[in-house]
## 1
Amino acid sequence: MKKKKVIIVLLMVIIASIYAGKLKVSPMEDLNITAGVGYDINKDLNGDVEYRVPITIYDFKTKGKGGEGSSIQNSTKTRKVNDISSTTIKTEANTIAEIRQQRQLNTSKPFTIGTPKITIIGEEQAFYGIKNIVNILFFNANINDKVIFTVGKGKAEDILRVKVDGYPSSADYMEGMVKYATNYNFLNSDYNLLNIYVTLDSEGKNLVLPYLEIKDENIAIKGMALFKGDKLAYVLPMEEGKIMNMLREKKGKGILSLQEGPDKYINYDVTVKKKVKCNKTGGKYEFIIDLDFKGDIIENTLYKTIKKENEKEFERLMSKKIEIMCYDFLGKMKNDYKIDCLNLGMYAAAKYGRESGVDWNKEVSNSDIKVNIVVNIDRIGIGQY
């Protein structure tokens, strides 16, 4: 019995040694671990394009023989990591694939794949198109298709270089910012590479991404980037983007306000669920969007006390306000943007047939769109002064 146990242990050690060699596992200090990636372009007078891809990598600092915060020098010795910072490096070339070659020629360590927290597409690159970026990333089976994608005002490089107190890199800060924005602005959680790939390849869908901007030496989500095909078409300010998200996403969370004066208002922390119906009459499409709001009153200075009659009045007034907001946005979408921001074409294509050659942006812009609003109060809190 003891011999069998010894043999099993020896076999496990041999197998582990073989796989460790094949996997080529390296300590982190021997790698350039990527925190964030950006995509920028420069266009010359002839229209030729030069690609610029800034990458933020982690710098690992330790306590060792070199003193407080010295860099790890010997990868064979285990040393306690004391501090992590980051560095942003930039590479330029005529193609994105060539950038990978050039980047490795200027560093002594291999770059990791699949570790970036966020990818930022510079505004000029977004207007130029992102299909080449998506294609080259999906050619690599080791890529992380869940990495967050955003569009940045100006150059992606400038945003990646911002230093944020308490974070090793701006990429770490932006990842959390986009991830948790779903709680209050009706954003979804699928602004990732896989969602981009599926959206660009789906009939009746248009891509939207969070739009980042440097404001007062900090980074903030300032709007929604609306694409037509693989090219950026418009940047919607956040208040307008909030309404679009409310109408676009199947489910979302946010805060809505009903205000009658500077000191008379109610804030409504709400979850909204959406359903869409599509009909076609005489060659013209009709869409009916049902929005069901349910949430809590988290702040109230409008009513002295909220009784049953006040609840009904609030629900009626809030329904009316949301309805006006929605129809104002729909008018702008159909007459100004002329893009199907809400992916309504997807529902029509599913019901009446795909690959029919229909321009869904045009059809939706000329369609009748109706919105039905239902508002319900769940809770009004434990009391008020």
## 2
Amino acid sequence: MKIAIIGAGINGLYLAWKLSERGHKAIVFEKKQRIGKQVCSGLFSERILEFIPKTNALIQNQIESVLIHFPKKTINVKFSKKFLVMSHIELDRLTAGLAQKSGAEIKLNCNIAMSDLNAFDRIIGCDGAKSMVRKSLNLPEPTHCSGIQGFVSEANFSNYVEVWPFKGGFSWKIPQGKETEYGIIESQKEAKLLFEEFLKENNLHLERINSAIVPQGLIIPSHSTITLCGDAAGLTKPWSGGGVIWGLIAAEILLLNFPDFLKYQKASTKFFLPKILFSKIATKMVYFLGFKFPRILPKNIRIESDFLM
């Protein structure tokens, strides 16, 4: 089949790689001039090695737990699988190389319209939070948060992350190895102000400050020839905003059901919807207890790295 993949992010490149290996003609259309996601903490669970084994060479640090600092109590959350710190840009470029070696074609600096894709048998939208493909299908927008990050030139190889919850999100500190990252995920209305206050309180002066929209939801169309994957489908974890592993799992579900996009829609909804609903409830409960009744929460918790159930 001739397949158009819109967006050369990790999900689009992964699908291009795997579909090309099966003998399909996959063409990736990317509006940017270069491959590589700029705004991302690059914190992925060890599952990334199952999808792209060669990522071992990209590891900058390893994370085993997170300290959640509520106003009156700190909770230590241990992960069942380590999180690996690596450059998202290099991860994307590595996957692009694998896709090209398998026969996929990647077209950069290419603003394409849906009307230009009539010659393709299937169209897969992997074009992020503001997905053109999603809009062309008149689908609802996912909920959007703001993510802001910046860096301090301070080497940090600690094996834990720290977060400071707010009512609608949290600020974080991630040891990136050769430097330290600080950031926030919050509502678009509150993120900038809360982050500025956080930086001021902690006397932090950041370099290379970036921001991006983080989608949250599950929007996969009931369409036989056009579908969505990754951020375009709003697939990010409700408690952290991370989406790489969830997007790659969705890509595997798509590949398992390809070329039947209706089966993919049903299978992915069945897999992700209960996890999204449970995660939202669990996150709200932990935040409520953390702010209102911190004594009830245990000091030490162990969770699955990518799923809360």
## 3
Amino acid sequence: MSTLDDGTANPTLSDLRSSRWYTPGSEEIDAAHAAAWERIRELNALGNTDQARAKELLAEIFAPGSAVPGVFAPLHVEFGLNTSFGEHCFLNYNCVILDIAEVTVGANTLFGPGCQLITVEHPVNDAQARADGWERGRPVTIGDNCWFGAGAMVMPGVTVGDNCVVAAGAVVTKDVPDNSLVGGVPAKLIRSLD
């Protein structure tokens, strides 16, 4: 439990973004979840038939100042308010963003179907802490002009540089330098794209 000594049992939204351990659940967090999930429910119910309303909902879901990505719903987002996109991004069907901590995506970045951006992690070496619900968020940062193949995942605390390609099904557990093609589980450098 020593890794959880700096944790909190009644977190605020800013606690979630602090990379400290916490147990989920508070009035503030529950309200933020409810607001996001209601908008996501409405977005997904549109069935991709009303792009104007979808754009309005996405602008409400994502962080203030975020560009609105193109989306083929369904989309699954935990909070939305911790996620921002640059211009001209796209998310294909069934993408998942667990944005306990910040998710920052650069311009012109594209995600194939079923991609996941995960900022939340649980204690690895403490089964009781996992059972008790302890978790923490670590930010995910993705550069400009990236392409993620179907089913690619980016795990907590990872930065993917500019001009990268992440192969379908890859699980990115470590930072990826600019101009790289990575693939596999865990993802490894396949070659430079210089």
## 4
Amino acid sequence: MSLRAGIVGLPNVGKSTLFNALTRAGVPAANYPFCTIDPNVGVIPVPDPRLDQLAELVHPERIIPATVECVDIAGLVAGASKGEGLGNQFLAHIRETDAIIEVVRCFSSESVIHVSGHPNPLSDVAVIETELALADLATVERSLAQASAQARSGHKDARERVDFLERLQKNLDQGGWVRELDLNEQETIWLRELHLFTEKSLLYLANIGEDPKDPQTKRWVEELESYAHQRGSAVVVISTQIESEIAELDVAEQHAFMRELGYAEPGLNRLIRSAYQVLGLETFFTAGPKEVRAWTIRRGISAPRAAAVIHTDFERGFIAAEVASYEDFIKFGSEAGARAAGKMRLEGRDYVVQDGDVVHFRFNV
């Protein structure tokens, strides 16, 4: 599986600059509202030094990282759920993403226009999240009308679906997020069919401009972190402008520039790792002469379900999984070395794959 994230925010908060830095795609980022007319989609490799370490031992023909697919849409404004600023048209582009990255401007600048005249991070967040909730409310009300008609005609299970949709409607009316509700298995299935925005995992990106020590910026970031904590979410603090500059340099220049700034790594690496944490994702590896590859899975899944990420036949014909931890694989230098040291385990169907496992699946179809 690949993580798919939608990037949202008001106009001129740094969304397209972030997208450019992530993908190096060169998408125009103009200083006026609605400069992004079509949704931009980029596939981004997930930075993971473990993959390179494995490749140094195995010497494969190719190295394939896990990926994140990012969807950048036009800036949203108040009324977007009803079509203001073309917002309704673009909201559709992120309905089927796994997570939402909400870019929030936490810096002042006379040269960068703010859509409402001046930055106010919590007010900006309220605008975006109100529009997402209103769009969800419209979706739920349409589904409720259909389910109510089916219930009146005696359709099986329609009454239960009506009760479920009425719960969603009440929650959204009260300003809640659907992902905060406690749902049973059937309700979870119904919820997925709706592709609601407020059901998705949410990660805030505080765009701090180029002066992280500015007192106003620090206050705004603290306010956003407090709000995110209440939402059960997290904040990643980066300067999209600086990250864009880093992304344009070659590797040697990047390291020199980051040393000058006091950065241990690009902020984008922290963003991607945080997205993984928010979504409860982990990585396992396959390593052989043809390729060393990282695979993304949900935390806590069994070996057969992890095998299905490679190919559904692997799950259907699953026999066993040969597993070594990343640490043991590196320590003993190879799969053969780990096996000789008794660190290559044979696991069955109930084994829960761990982050960093190096796995070889046995299957027969």
